[in-house]
Amino acid sequence: MHSSSFFFFLFFFFFPIISQSRLTLDFYKQSCPQFHQIIQDTVTSKQISSPTTAAATIRLFLHDCLLPNGCDASLLLSSTPFSTAERDNDINLSLPGDAFDLVVRIKTALELACPNTVSCSDILAASTRNLLVMLGGPNFPVFLGRRDGTVSTSASVTNHLPKPAMAMSQIIDIFTQRGFTVEEFVALTGAHTVGLTHCSEIFNNKSNNNIHNDNGYNPRFAEALEKACGNYKNDPTLSVFNDIMTPGKFDNMYFQNLPKGLGVLKSDHGLYSDNRTKPFVDRFGKDENEFFRVFAKSMQKLSFLGVKTGRRGEIRRRCDQIN
Q1: Name one GO biological process term (predicted).
Q2: Structure confidence by residue, pLDDT tens digits, 18-51
Q3: Does the annotation place 64 within a ligand binding site?
Q4: Disulfide-capable partner of 23 in 129, 143, 306, 312 (CB 3.0 to 4.6 Å)?
Q5: What is the helix (H) or strand (E) element at residue 3, kind and residue range?
Q6: Class assignment of domain 24-160+305-312?
Q7: How far are the Cα atoms of 122, 145, 213, 286 from residue 28, in angstroms, in the given order?
C-alpha cells in the first residue's frame, strides 16, 4: 500500500474516533475534581431511598440518546408556551420522575462545587453507568465533555423510539438507523431485566382477554398479570415488574424468561418469536458474561450518538431550561 493511500486508510478508519476524541475520561480533572465523587454520593443516596431510580435513569438515557439530536439532555428540557418539548410527547409521559429528580440533585450539588462547568448530558451519562453497576450490571468507561442541546420538540420524537405495540421490523429499524446491529439492539433491550411497565402498556386499552390469545404468554402468567392489573383503567399508575424473577438485579434473567412465556410486553415476545432476534435471546440467556460484554459495548456506543462539543452546545445552568 502506498504511503498516501495508507494515510487515507488511517484517516477514514480513525475518523469516528477522532471526532469523539474531544470527549475524554478525565475531562473534569482540573475544572471539577469532585465530579465523580458528587455523582457517586448522590446516585447512592437516591437509589437507596428510591430503588426504582436506576431503571428509570437507564430508560431516560436511552430515550434521550436515541432521538435524532443524540445525547444532549434535550429530553430534560421543559415545554414553553411556544413549544412542546420531547418530554411531553406521549411516549415520554411514562418516564418516572425519579430519574429527572436525580439529575436535578446532582446538577445542584455540582453547581455549588464548580459553577457553569458540568453539562446535564454528562451528568446523565455518568449517573446511568454508576446506577447500572450498583444493580450488578457491567462497568464501562464513560467519556465526558458533552455539551447540552438547546432544541427540544415533541414532533422530533415520533417514530424514533420503540413502542411495545410496534412490529419487530419497525423496532429493529429504529436501532439500525442509529447504527446498531441486531445483536446490539437485543442486548440493549436486556435493560428490561430491571424496572416496571405500566399495565396500560401491556393491555393497550383493549379487552383484558387479549393476552390469553397471544401464544407468547405463559397461561398462568397471563392470569397473574390480569389480576395484578385488574384495576388499571381506574388507576393508570398500576405497574408490574419487567422481570418477575430478579426484579432488582441487573442480570440475564430477562432473556431466560422469554422462552418460558414470562415476557411482560408484546415486544418482549416478539424478540423470541422473530428469527432475526431469537438467536441472540438464546445466547444471552445462556451466557450472562456475553450479554454484559455486548450490553456495555452498546451502551458506550449509545453514549456517543450525536454528541455536541465546543460551541455546538452549552452548559445549562438548569437542566430543564436553556440559558
Answers
A1: response to oxidative stress
A2: 445 589 999 999 999 999 999 999 999 999 999 9
A3: yes
A4: 143
A5: helix 3-20
A6: mainly alpha
A7: 10, 8, 54, 40
Q: Decide if 43 contacts 127 (C-beta within 8 A).
A: yes
On whether the CB atoms of residues 47 and 131 are closer than 8 A, the answer is yes
**Within the chain, which residue ranges are assigned CATH 1.10.420.10?**
168-300
DSSP letters for 169-195: HHHHHHHHTTT--HHHHHHHHGGGGSS
- pLDDT per residue as tens digits for the range 228-264: 998 888 888 889 999 999 999 999 999 999 999 999 9
2 is catalytic: no
pTM of the model: 0.89
Residues of the chain with CATH 1.10.520.10: 24-160+305-312
The catalytically annotated residue of 2, 36, 63, 160 is 63
CATH topology of domain 168-300: Peroxidase; domain 2 (1.10.420)
Cell of 207: 379487552
CB 312 within 8 A of CB 149: no
Ligand-binding site membership of 243 (annotated):
yes
Q: Is 70 flagged in the annotation as binding?
A: yes
> Cα dist. 80→56, 103, 253 in Å?
24, 20, 42
Determine which helix (DSSP H) or strand (DSSP E) holds 240, and give its type and residue range: strand 239-241
Cell 392470569 belongs to which residue?
A: 223
CA distance 117 to 234: 45
* Residue 136 marked as a ligand binder: no
Q: List phi, psi (to 5°) of 151.
A: -125, 135
